[in-house]
Amino acid sequence: MEFLGIVSGEGGPLIIGDAAVVQQWRGIEDGGADYERCCAPLDRDANLQGYALAVGNGVALIWEMQGGGTADLFQKSPSEIVIVRTWLDRADDEEVVIDLLAVAPSIAPPVFLCEIAITSGVCAVLWSPEDGQCIESMEVGESMRMTGEMAMEESGLMFPVTPGVYQCFHDEVAVEGGTARRCRLKAKE
Predict the structure, then answer these.
(1) pTM over 0.90
(2) What residue ranges in 1-155 does DSSP mark as E strands?
(3) Less packed terminus of the chain by CB within 10 Å, N or C?
(4) Burial of 131 (C-beta count, 10 Å sphere; 0-12/13-18/19+)
């Protein structure tokens, strides 16, 4: 599995979807209506792990990270993404434990969240308070960071994927050294 990078946040969920859809997201800008709209279902239902949300002319996934922290992004193949939010017992073997959590079997059956279309071939993962206008270009070169203004430097990441409809799942895993919540996106065949 290829490590792509991290997305950090100070609380609040991640928005995940086609970069052209996420680009239409306003987060806390324009009075914060988008951010409030994405948090309301999570506030109403503490068991909700994620769901589909209409954004502009598309649909994105809202996934709950469970507080402030960092999510590690991996790509198993051009059509499968794994996002891992970890809690580690110690920092001395952090990379090894995170890699193990990315591939570990689920503690319980994965929960289906929704389906989203990624038709542009570029997936964006953004901390939900951020403004999607930080996506100034759909070009993914050597750096996969958004190029526009952001509140935090590492609060968004873009990467190429196989265009298609992606099924989104949530699960939880544990290995010696840590536990994690995961969000998995896999293209329908």
Answers:
(1) yes
(2) 2-9, 14-18, 50-55, 58-63, 69-77, 80-88, 111-118, 122-127
(3) C
(4) buried
Q: Identify whether the C-beta of residue 1 lies closer than 8 Å to the C-beta of residue 100.
A: no
> What does the pLDDT average to over 129-150?
82
DSSP letter string, 118-187:
E-SSEEEEEETTS-GGG-------S--S--S--SSTTSEEEEE--SEEEEEEEEEEEETTEEEEEEEEEE
Taking all residues of the chain, what is their mean pLDDT, rounded to a whole number?
93
CA 65 – CA 47 distance, rounded (Å): 13
Joined together, the tokens standing for residue 84 give: 């891992």
CA dist 49 and 51 (Å) reads 7
DSSP state of 67: S
What lies within 8 Å, CB to CB, of 90 at 6+ separation is 177
